[in-house]
Specification:
5 strands, 53% helix, 13% strand, globular, alpha/beta, 207 residues
């Protein structure tokens, strides 16, 4: 039986998933947490096979959670479960080490199938994104996640949430100078000259 932990800041989401799998013979809901830091305390108390994790978490974002789990709890597989734009975040999450990406609009049967696929050693992304990636390769393009690296997407998301360089540096465990470098790269890639316009660009990308 798959032991499932869920990380989401909205109790209605975690409670809903708990109820969905309450009578499942294949999946056992073991714990719910509301922020990124709490995941690692819970993993010490509960044997977990799969973490179903929102990418936009308080205290520690989903991408940072993936990286830390791969170092500290490599036996735990991570599926990002989010309403964030799939084209932007799914590729970044997989590149960071996620074992799957499921949009919150997905139906329950597909969610269960994705969990079981990852548990058995596979990687799950939606059929629509798989087709887009295939078309992208055939066309020789690289415009998924708007030509941004995984780390640049993280920094951009945190900037759009109003975080200052120091706060971003602390959350991502990098120095402030590095954050400034990423910020400069983002402005160049998105063709803006100030933070306000950078945030506007972020909103237009539905980050």
């Amino acid at each position: 039986m798959v032991k499932l932990m869920v990380a989401d800041s909205f109790p209605i989401v975690t409670k809903g998933i708990e109820l969905v799998f309450a009578n499942s013979r294949d999946i056992k809901f073991v714990e719910a947490v509301a922020d990124g830091d709490a995941i690692f305390d819970a993993l010490k108390l509960h044997t977990t096979d799969i973490l179903l994790c929102e990418i936009d978490l308080p205290k520690l974002n989903g991408i940072s959670v993936i990286r830390r789990i791969k170092k500290e709890n490599p036996e735990v597989k991570v599926i990002i479960y989010s309403a964030q734009q799939e084209d932007v975040y799914a590729v970044s999450a997989i590149k960071a080490g996620a074992d799957g990406y499921i949009h919150k609009s997905t139906d329950i049967l597909t969610l269960k199938d994705a969990i079981m696929k990852v548990y058995l050693g596979g990687v799950y992304i939606s059929p629509s994104l798989s087709r887009k990636i295939a078309l992208d390769k055939n066309a020789g393009k690289s415009n998924f996640y708007k030509k941004l690296s995984t780390r640049e997407v993280e920094v951009l998301k945190l900037l759009s949430n109003g975080k200052r360089n120091k706060e971003i540096a602390e959350e991502l465990q990098i120095n402030e100078k590095t954050v400034s470098t990423y910020r400069a790269r983002l402005m160049k890639k998105l063709n803006v000259t100030n933070l306000i316009d950078l945030v506007k660009q972020t909103k237009s990308l539905e980050l």
